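Can't attach files on this board, so I'm pasting raw text. These are the components:
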Amino acid sequence: MFRPRIRMTTAAPILRRQLSTPQVPASPFPYNPGSLLSVLDLSIEAIGALLKRATELEQMDPVGRDRILAKRRIALLFYESSTRTRTSFELAAKSLGAYTTLVSSLSSSIEKGESLKDTGLTLRALGAEAIIIRQNFSGAAWLLEAETRLPIINAGDGMHEHPTQALLDLRTILAHLCPGVELVDEKTLAGITVSIVGDILHSRVARSNMLLLPRLGATVVLCGPKELLPELAAKAGPGIEIERNFQAAIERSQVVMMLRIQAERLAGLQLDLNEYKENYQLTGPRLATYAPKAVVLHPGPIIRGLEITAGVADGFQSAILEQVTNGVAIRMAVVERALTSAQNGDRA
Amino acid sequence: MTDLVIRGGHLLDPAAGIDAPKDILLKAGRVAEITAPGKLKGISGVEVIDATGLTVAPGLVDIHVHLREPGFGYKETIATGTACAAAGGFTSVAAMPNTHPVNDSVETTRWMLSPDRGAQIRVFPIAAATRGSKGETINDYAALKSAGAVAVSDDGLPILKDGVMRETLAAAARVGLCVIQHAEDTRMTQGGCMNLGPASFRLGLRGMPAEAESAIVERDIRLVTELRDSRVHLHVAHTSTAAALNAVRQARRNGLRVTCEVAPHHFLLTDEHVGFYNTNAKMCPPLRSAADRDAMIEGILDGVVDAIATDHAPHAVHEKEVEFENAPNGINGLETSLGLALRWLHKEWKLPMGRVLSLLSAQPAALLGMKGRGTLAVGSFADVVMFDAKAEWTYNVLATKSKSKNTPFDGWPMLGKVRWTISEGRIAYSNPA
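---
Top answer:
Structure tokens for the assembled complex are below.
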């Protein structure tokens, strides 16, 4: 009988020589040039163009602006509740003259078990020319784009990305720290440190911002307890650092972005909220002591008295409502891009 | 069962130590005679296969496949799964018990072995280690073995409880069966759907740490050590991490009967191959870091890995066209195993072809005690694969014999094209040039 020959080695398995291994294939995404799945889909020129266009559209006469996408059909597919994102996308699309229709998981066939693929194909068959999707699973926007090949705008996929939020945050940061800057490049935010504080692990806003802001020269400092901020977050991309000490993080920051603890995604994780508040709540005294000039951002919804006190949320350093307003402008530009790049057909 | 002559081929049988041009006579499902080319006598009227230019080798053996029957015939049947195996050059496959019902009974084992299933090659059922694979009560291994089971495993799930695993190892040893462990501490992988690492963080997916695998392997090796019974045989299924492989390596240095297998996807791909949520790159254990992948290559090259096994796990297209977290674990592998092993292990990493074939036949057959398999010595089963070792081709999943198409290797270059697969003297697959 054959006996397997076993050669014993004492060394730990480290490759004895450099071996070539299979390449990771290039991503086929986005299939549609109008899609915005990730902030990484946008070149720096494209980011600049969107920011510029947002300002133009914002300043345009509403009568006339509504002819840009007159009668075009856009579906909003929302599997999760939303106030800001949904309303601002809807207002943005309508400001450009498009028809919008809202499909939400609770009042549609999604409740009966219809898959995301079938929902997407159905919306396409109904004439939707673009779909804005918010979904509770990471990667949903990629699946929807692969199946429908329509322009897909990712309005938040699970714990993954929320690219329009990062763009509107960028617009808010620029308005405060670089007023008058028209075009952005790799150095626009050089020397600027943005702290993102709190539940990083479950936050798509954090991921989109940490992938976007360093590309324009900013340093992103992530701050939070180990349970909500794993060490490997620092490897997500260049320009990302971890600072566990809240005071130290905000002391070096021009922008402090607070995040909500996402109770819906904790998945059994037990957190001592009193301890959390003790260490990470943005309070008036903390802000006055360590970051008296910083701009305070929060993607919302805020939980007053948890990650941020009411005084700070309503205080003069807070730009939280400006972020909301900027959302409409940014989303007008993103929605316009979705329906006009596809028309040009330079990639699809 | 007709007799067959294989003429003009180059016989490569690592177990028998043959690497030379030979003619072979197959009679009554067995290897009857091996001679120098042109020396077979008294073969007039016997059907001849012209193997000129082909490598003739023992039929391949895969000790880890999911044929999905009973219960999940929409994913695969024993008939389609074995047809797929034959196309990949396999003549023996060991089928995991995570079917519906779970194969924890003599009845199910016999049902799988019934000729009514239409198997194209030999199927060796692996019985569930515990009732319903629930990890609580061990099954009657003596009865399962006499019904045809070649090993016990709760694959898909680990046997978590120390006491149950100890009892499983001891009871299986008493009847001469190997225990195949799916090493995953599920307490550490809750909600996880890919390897825990920078890629999982970036993709916003919950991760499964490498320690979830090595912790169970280390625990199992401790149990084997404590049992002090040389009959105890632990086999680690689909090893994917450097730490687990090191534990196996150490156990073997200590003289324990601990073996392991590695799947092609774990020695070729990393968690970066998940790309943007490619559900055909989702399996359990998941694709790991580059360091872990490199450790699998090293383990194969230095001999600590005993077998290449595919973990062929078909799933219907609609089950994979969903959000990554909702997609079931598993990828197909039977048709790509040889082509990938030759393309990478042999051509790229210079492992001699005989050793590649040994990992795909002689060693896995020996590991599960499949007598007369994995070699073409006279008297062995007439299980033969003939392939064109020089042929480069591209895998096209649309042409698969499987019912399912879930593979990350669609469009990949392969080396070595299977031309004939003969199972116990019967042609199970042919695709002459």
